[in-house]
Write a structure and sequence with these properties.
This protein is of the alpha/beta class. The chain is built from 17 helices and 13 strands. Helix 1 packs parallel to helix 2 and helix 15 packs across helix 16.
């Protein structure tokens, strides 16, 4: 490139919550020397604490000097005053829609890039609609790109998808990995059983209590080895998704805790340093563990479903029972699964190339504007979405009106969803594929519903 095209490609990341800050930091930190990245942590009610921010930046390659905290209005003013080439919008769906609308009004408009921070199978309509105003949607596997492309075509939502190796899976599968499914890696770095907790999976308090009892049993089964419950936040800290039932409280309800059962909010990478294996329902930590050659058990107690976000782990052959957890019989993915799911050849990554191409179009004045998808509710719905994102930080009259109307409606919707979830859970457990039956039977009878996340 020469002239204007030879200037450094300035990219500003915008994120607020723990998982999105970590994802954005690692994605930006891996950019080549042609890029000049900065990460702005946007103040919302769920914004990361200083401790969470430090954890998110660990190993990202992004220097702390390249990270700043700003209120939304200040972010908008700074972007308008000095527009970068690219804005990476990393957040839950409503936040992405809000920020994308702000960036879209800047002249000259920056390229708007977005994505999801982990396992994104199944592809969801919500994820597409919330990000409709973005120029590029980053996904992390060949399967994700294929599924999202098909869904976008089906829904009539034009999207451009780009591939990037999941930041936490960089370097591919290490030499410690073994392709023999169902065997414990004898060369694992440590002997901890690490449980990757999730805020919304499983969702029901009764199911989370069931997991807590399993963790206690696993600790008592091997008193000479630790069970480390890896949490996303300390008490009082926020997470991307609201965690209504904390594993600390659930374990405390069970009486005296085994001395070898401990809780940790350290970075996942540090937890895996001493892991003999990882247990989860569907956390992206499973991909991080696979990349490091650490065995995984995707707990099969609740079946396999889109709502549990564990279909892709089931396809890898990682499902394991509670007896497997207690015996620490960790698994490794089937070899054929790797290339389609997060461990593709890095040469297939094209998100930097596609972004640079869009920047060149922007500098020529050829960047095509992308209008948002018109949603139900019009102006009132837009005000509600802003209020959902900013909470008490939004003091506008429209936000107050949206609150008066929206809160009763949301209460009804959530109540209906809880009833539906309980009915689905009861129906799944009444099938022949109950707890303790084979993973294949559970997969066949699992409830396949849409994810209830915020996209």
């Amino acid at each position: 490139m020469s002239g204007a095209d030879a200037a450094p490609l300035r990219i500003v990341g915008l994120a607020d919550t723990d998982s999105y800050v970590k994802w954005a930091a690692h994605l930006l930190g891996a950019l080549g020397p042609a890029w000049s990245p900065v990460l702005t942590v946007v103040t919302t009610p769920l914004v990361v604490s200083d401790a969470q921010l430090t954890s998110a930046l660990a190993g990202s390659g992004l220097a702390a000097l390249d990270v700043e905290r700003r209120d939304l209005e200040v972010v908008a003013e700074r972007l308008r005053a000095d527009p970068p080439d690219v804005v990476l919008v990393a957040g839950r769906g409503p936040l992405v829609r809000l920020l994308a609308s702000v960036v879209a009004d800047i002249v000259p408009r920056p390229v708007i890039v977005t994505g999801l921070p982990g396992i994104s199978i199944p592809a969801t309509r919500k994820a597409l609609l919330y990000r409709a105003q973005c120029d590029l949607f980053v996904v992390h596997s060949q399967r994700e790109r294929r599924d999202f492309t098909a869904l976008a075509r089906e829904q009539g939502v034009p999207h451009r998808f780009a591939l990037a190796t999941l930041p936490f899976a960089r370097g591919g599968v290490t030499e410690r990995h073994t392709a023999v499914v169902g065997e414990t890696a004898a060369t694992a770095a440590g002997d901890d059983l690490v449980f990757a907790a999730q805020a919304k999976v499983p969702a029901l308090a009764a199911d989370r209590r069931h997991v807590a009892r399993l963790l206690v049993r696993a600790a008592r089964a091997r008193p000479d080895r630790r069970v480390v419950v890896k949490l996303r936040a300390k008490p009082g800290e926020s997470q991307t998704h609201l965690e209504e039932t904390d594993y600390r409280d659930l374990v405390a309800e069970l009486g005296p805790m085994p001395e070898n059962l401990v809780f940790s909010t350290a970075p996942m990478a540090r937890a895996l340093d001493s892991a003999g294996g990882l247990v989860t329902v569907s956390s992206t930590a499973a991909i991080e563990a696979i990349a490091r050659g650490v065995g995984v058990i995707a707990l099969d107690s609740f079946g396999v479903s889109a709502e549990l976000i564990n279909e892709v782990l089931a396809d890898a052959g990682l499902l394991g029972s509670e007896a497997d957890v207690e015996a620490r019989r960790f698994r490794h993915p089937a070899p054929h699964w790797l290339a389609e799911n997060y461990f593709h050849d890095p040469s297939a990554d094209d998100w930097e190339e596609q972004t640079a191409r869009l920047v060149r179009a922007r500098r020529r004045g050829d960047l095509v504007p992308r209008p948002p998808v018109a949603g139900r509710g019009g102006t009132l719905r837009a005000a509600w979405d802003r209020k959902v994102v900013l909470g008490p930080l939004d003091t506008s009259a429209a936000g107050r009106l949206a609150t008066v109307v929206g809160i009763p409606v949301r209460a009804v919707v959530r109540a209906a969803r809880r009833v539906r979830n309980r009915s689905a859970a009861r129906g799944d457990r009444q099938q022949p594929a109950a707890r303790g039956s084979s993973a294949q039977e559970r997969s066949t009878s699992a409830v396949r519903t849409s994810t209830t996340s915020t996209g």
